[in-house]
Amino acid sequence: MKHIARIRGILPFVTALGAALLVPGCATSPDSGAGSPAPAPTAVVAGIPSTTNVPLHKDKDIEGVWLAPGFNFKGYDGLYVEDTVFAATVRANEEKERKIAIGAVQRFIVEYAQSSSLFPTVAAGAPPATGHNLVLKNTIIKYEKGGGAARYFAGIYGGGQPHTRVRGEMFDGGKLVFVYVAERSGEGGGARMLGAYKSDDDIQTNDIRDLALDLADCMKRNAGAP
Q1: How far is CA 154 from CA 147, 180, 193, 219, in A?
Q2: What does the pLDDT read at residue 209?
Q3: Where are the alpha helices (DSSP H) in the chain?
C-alpha cells in the first residue's frame, strides 16, 4: 500500500512486532471470536448481482477496479450514494467506531465525488424517479478499529492500525457498470509514527477520507477528465 514507501527506513529502533502481542486486548484480530458475525453479504445486499466473476484489476491507488465495456461515468444527471452496508465481523468493543466508519464512507465519497465535477448532482441517498442517474452501493467487507497500545509498540509496521476494506458497486438502472474494492490501514506518516497518541476514530477517518479521494481520482481518470 501507499504508506510502505513512506515508512521504509524510518525508526529502526522500533520494537519488533512480537512486542505488541504482549499487550492483551489492544487491537482486534481479523478472526477474533469476540462478538458475533454480521449477516452474510448476500443477505444484506440481496438483489445486487454477484461480482464473483468480475475481473478486477489494480488502478493506481485502488486495489481492484472493474468497468463495464464502454462505461466512462459520463452523460449522467447525477450520482447517488446509498447508505453504507456493514457486512464485516461485528465486535462488541467496536460499536462506536463502527458507526463512525459507516457514516464516513458515505459522507466522504459524496464530498469528493462532488469536488470531482464529473456529475451535475452528487447526493447521499436514493435517486429521484426522474433523470438518468447512477447509484453507488458501498459495503464495508472488512473492519477492525485497531488499538493505541499496539500502535505504541509496532504501529509503524501496521500493528494496532484500524483497517477498513470497502466494496462498491455502481448501477445504471439495473445494470452493473462499475465495481471497486479498496482498503486502507493507517495511511499517512502521522498514523504510523504517532499513532499511539491518536485515537482510533481519527486514524480511521483519515483512512476513509484517503479512500474516497482516491476513488474520486479513479473515476476522473477513467472518465478521461483532467
Answers
A1: 11, 30, 9, 35
A2: 92
A3: 2-7, 41-44, 95-115, 148-154, 189-193, 200-223
Nearest Cα residue to 146 out of 50, 20, 12, 15: 20
pLDDT tens-place string over residues 33-70:
344 444 333 323 334 445 557 889 999 999 999 999 99
What b/e sequence results for 23-49 when a residue is b if at least 16 CB atoms lie within 10 Å of its CB, and e otherwise?
A: beebbbeeeeeeeeebeebeeebeeee
Amino acid identity, residue 164?
T
User: For residue 18, is pLDDT > 80?
Assistant: no
Amino acid identity for residue 143 in this structure: Y
Buried b / exposed e over 179-197, threshold 16 CB at 10 Å, is: bbbbbbbbbbeebbbebee
Q: What is the mean pLDDT of the chain?
A: 75
Closest to 213 (Cα-Cα) out of 79, 105, 83: 105
Q: Domain locations in the chain? A: 54-223
Whether the CB-CB separation of 221 and 59 falls below 8 Å is answered with yes
For 191-209, how does the pLDDT look when each residue is reduced to its tens digit (9 = 90+)? Answer: 444 444 355 677 788 889 9
54-223 placed in CATH 3.30.160? yes
How many Cβ atoms are within 10 Å of 78's Cβ, its own excluded? 16
Cell of 7: 515508512
CB 51 within 8 A of CB 168: no
Written as one letter, the residue type at 129 is: A
